[in-house]
Amino acid sequence: MDVALCTINNTVYDIAGFEALSPKCIGVMRRNLLCPRCMGPGFYRKAARSGQASCFGARPHAEFCDMGGPQSASYRGDTLEQDDVVNRGERIEVDFAFGAPMYHHAVEEGAEATYGAGRQGGGHAAQRTQTRHRRLSTLLKNLILSEDFRRSEQLISVESGLFKVRDFFVPFAHAECDELERMRGYWGLISDAAQSGDQPPSLWLNTGGRQDLSVVVDSSLADDFTQRFPIHELEDLAGAYVLVFGCVRVSKNAKKYIAVHDISRITLNKTP
């Protein structure tokens, strides 16, 4: 993608014009980019030490959009394979065991469904409802690529209860602080990443947009994070999607964040 639309000043930039801005402006504006053709969520990535040039991108582009370039179709995770598709009739059991074999079973006839916070229990599941264990990576792919899945009323089971998919998964743009600290699945595009000034440093995955929320990976998880999601430098994370199971909190400086203290509660979907 050769150009990107900044929603702060409604200006379309090419790379040269964008990089002519001050570092402070770039830091703010890169969190507020869209594809100017299809309005897909955009990102800016600085030039890499490996020699790869700086660029704009958007994930995913709309089907009709011609601004993605040939590399967009090959982005890892931007297509749903048959095994990735979550069928409407399934009840989803979240599999936090990264790398373990997946399996599924059927719920007994007449099994009672107990809904999570804010829902009334007492309904009966459909007879012989299939329960399938799904990894976070598969759930994230479906959230990125399937509007039907995002709006689905099918059930998902987590430690805190049974929820409808449309209620449990929350895009970063709609994330709000919950005084009850109820767990939800928050997801969206990473605009940029940075390390804190602490020693050892924590990792901040910034999401940009109106909410300007960040996902904070605890410093104790640094090695686990880089082993699970290999990167050469922090700029590799620009344009990645993240799904994190947690709750939104607000810091003393009024910054919204989601803290990650368990590596099994987060997954990434990166571009090459």
Describe this entry's structure for a reader.
- This protein has 272 residues and is of the alpha+beta class.
- The protein has helices spanning 15-19, 23-29, 136-145, 147-150, 165-168, 222-228; strands at residues 3-6, 11-14, 33-34, 42-45, 55-58, 90-95, 104-106, 130-135, 155-158, 161-164, 169-171, 184-189, 192-195, 203-206, 214-217, 241-246, 249-250, 256-260, 266-269.
Question: Which secondary structure elements does this structure contain, and how are they paired or packed?
Answer:
Layout: E1 3-6, E2 11-14, H1 15-19, H2 23-29, E3 33-34, E4 42-45, E5 55-58, E6 90-95, E7 104-106, E8 130-135, H3 136-145, H4 147-150, E9 155-158, E10 161-164, H5 165-168, E11 169-171, E12 184-189, E13 192-195, E14 203-206, E15 214-217, H6 222-228, E16 241-246, E17 249-250, E18 256-260, E19 266-269
Parallel strand pairs: 6-8, 6-9, 11-12, 15-18
Antiparallel strand pairs: 1-2, 1-3, 4-5, 7-8, 9-10, 12-16, 13-14, 14-15, 16-19, 17-18
